[in-house]
Amino acid sequence: MKMPSVKYQRGEMVMGRWPGSSLYYEVKVLGYDTKSQLYTVIYKDGTELELKEQDIRNIAGFQTRSRSRSRSRSPGRRRSRSRSPARTTRRSSSRTAAAVAAAAIMESAPSSRRDAKLKDTLEVRLSPLQQTSAAENNSNNKHEKKEENNTANKVNEFESKVEAEPELNQGRYNLRRRKEDGDAKPVETKPEQLEEKDAKVAAAAPANLSTPLDFGGKIGAYFWLLFLPAWVLFVVLQGDLEDPSLVNFPPPLPPLEEFWDAQALGFVILWVLLQALLYILPFGKLSEGMPLSSGERLKYRTNGFFAITVSALAAAAAVYLGVDLTYIHSHFLQLATATFLISVLLSAYLYVHSCYAEPAQLALGGNSGNVVYDFFKGRELNPRIKNFDLKFFCEMRPGLIGWCLINFAMALAEMKEQRLDAPSYSMILVNLFQLLYVVDGLWNEEAILTTMDLMHDGFGFMLAFGDLVWVPFTYTLQAYYLVSHPNPLSLPAVGAIITLKLVGFYIFRKSNSEKNAFRRNPSDPKLSHLKTIPTATGKSLLVSGWWGVVRHPNYLGDLIMALAWSLPCGFSHLLPWYYMIYFIILLVHRDSRDMSECRRKYGSAWDEYCRTVRYRIIPRVY
Ligand code: NDP
């Protein structure tokens, strides 16, 4: 089958420019998409990319030029190379991105480990290299000199005036699934399917864009759709019992009419509208998200701190004016039901919205073709109403700020129920700790743009329910529990718990900020001391600093904080420890999801990272 009239034909061997560099490697053309005007090409290591025509060269002319090139370079040429961040790419063709990574990190490795690393990395055949300045700093000079003289160098460097591009520019290239993702059972995108002729079929069968099914696949989706709301109901009903324990399973169900309260629904709608209004007000920074597969970068109004400040003032004004916020405590079940209803309606809307989205706007997961699974997982990556980003809004605003409002209401309810003049120490600690967590998240709101939820997950029931129902109605369980289960704390205990919280917070904040800063500007001078591993996508991985201690230092900090949230509630019941237990499960699962995703994205470079940073979350333990 011949492709539409385009310069390069399917099956043709050409030279493709490697993202983020001025290097060209032999690639095979797999297809052409007339819509995006991109060629799908495959490199020798199986990496598939989408390239613009201007990044492809005819192989014949290229070889002639390469052969005729004198190795005694002109000063001009030398200059050009020394400017290029990709200058180390004049190395042997047997060196891979991972090999360079190994060279970069081997300096500090014992020699036995070096040999093993070298053996591992030299086995891969492709050598597209793109190094950040940090990575270059780490590169082995000896290696460079040796390879300078390697006239048998098979890598062709195209001497163009095009300067190497910064890492972030790689957004214009679209990395596809690697061949070696063998064990999964995704519906693979066949390159031919991307040809214009098949474009309609591809659009009609978005399953082609899918990755391995998560959360137990299609059967799992049914399970979670039923289990998650049932679990929220269970814990909400437990929190009010005198003896909240698993022995009370199933909890006594209230009559059906008790679930519903129109006023509660009105309250929730007002709250969401207030947050939406604060979100669209033109205060605060407009931040750019990470590049999408199209190269586009969406803008987000990151004014979360402003939103929580106004919300806090509104809550204070309400109390001052005599509004009884303990209503939130006494109508917890009805509020949860109303919010659940809204999350279901929103998820249905999101599913329908996604049916009108371009295939390029769909997330890699959540497009299995199975309605229930896709409804659960979310099909569209960034559903928007004009500039109003629904996923970002739900992730950061009504639920997260609502969490603090509920906690505050629980403190008022505790004072009322326990006849106290001020909330108990336990209640104050829980309120302050969780408020700090939320305020920090909103202050650093931009950082959410580099997280999995924003970058990879589609927006469907899983996130809508999680953001709107799960977070505000289960993360508040400790405060809810304390209203009717006082747990007096001694001052030394208060001090110890605060210290624990601060340690967790420090690890959490520092590690998240480090990665966020690196992803936003890999050549940030403040990060130049860190070692990195270049990957085939053009992005690098941090391999020292916080991300060299464990693979998810941010999860470690988060878990320590979770412990500090539960401790104020004592050990009489399991219920306030629910968050801790749930969070361990969530983060362990999230870590494994992220591991598979990163292995898919980064291939051998990721394996190299895992070999270097052995533990996932807890040093020397897990
Ligand atoms: P991360 O912020 O850890 O993001 C993972 C991504 O970071 C990877 O996919 C990869 O993306 C990049 N990455 C991984 N390793 C490296 C490395 N060595 N160098 C550079 N980049 C790397 O994941 P989450 O989104 O899960 O978590 C964000 C925060 O949110 C965490 O602190 C977590 O604890 C918290 N969280 C809290 C929850 C709660 O309910 N309280 C729920 C979930 C998360 P790429 O390479 O594509 O940039």
Automatic annotation (TrEMBL):
Spans traversing the lipid bilayer: 219-239, 259-281, 302-320, 332-352, 463-483, 489-508, 529-550, 562-588
Chain positions covered by the region annotation Disordered: 60-197
One Pfam family this sequence matches: LBR_tudor
PANTHER family reported in the protein's UniProt record: DELTA(14)-STEROL REDUCTASE (PTHR21257), DELTA(14)-STEROL REDUCTASE LBR (PTHR21257:SF55)
GO molecular function, one term: Delta14-sterol reductase activity
Basic and acidic residues composition bias: residue spans: 112-123, 178-197
PROSITE patterns: STEROL_REDUCT_1, STEROL_REDUCT_2
GO biological process: cell migration involved in gastrulation; cholesterol biosynthetic process
Similarity comment: family membership: Belongs to the ERG4/ERG24 family.
Biased composition regions of type Basic residues, renumbered to the chain: 66-93
Biased composition (Low complexity): 94-111
Catalytic activity: 4,4-dimethyl-5alpha-cholesta-8,24-dien-3beta-ol + NADP(+) = 4,4-dimethyl-5alpha-cholesta-8,14,24-trien-3beta-ol + NADPH + H(+); 5alpha-cholest-8,14-dien-3beta-ol + NADPH + H(+) = 5alpha-cholest-8-en-3beta-ol + NADP(+); 4,4-dimethyl-8,14-cholestadien-3beta-ol + NADPH + H(+) = 4,4-dimethyl-5alpha-cholest-8-en-3beta-ol + NADP(+)
Family annotation (InterPro entries): ERG24_DHCR-like, Lamin-B_rcpt_of_tudor, Sterol_reductase_CS, Tudor
Localization annotation: Cytoplasm; Endoplasmic reticulum membrane; Nucleus inner membrane
Gene Ontology CC: endoplasmic reticulum membrane; nuclear inner membrane
Official protein name in the record: Delta(14)-sterol reductase LBR
Pathway: Steroid biosynthesis; cholesterol biosynthesis
Chief localisation class: cytoplasm
Keywords: Cholesterol biosynthesis, Cholesterol metabolism, Cytoplasm, DNA-binding, Endoplasmic reticulum, Lipid biosynthesis, Lipid metabolism, Membrane, Nucleus, Oxidoreductase, Phosphoprotein, Receptor, Steroid biosynthesis, Steroid metabolism, Sterol biosynthesis, Sterol metabolism, Transmembrane, Transmembrane helix
Membrane topology: Multi-pass membrane protein
Superkingdom of the source species: Eukaryota
Record-annotated Tudor domain positions: 6-64
SMART domains: TUDOR (SM00333)
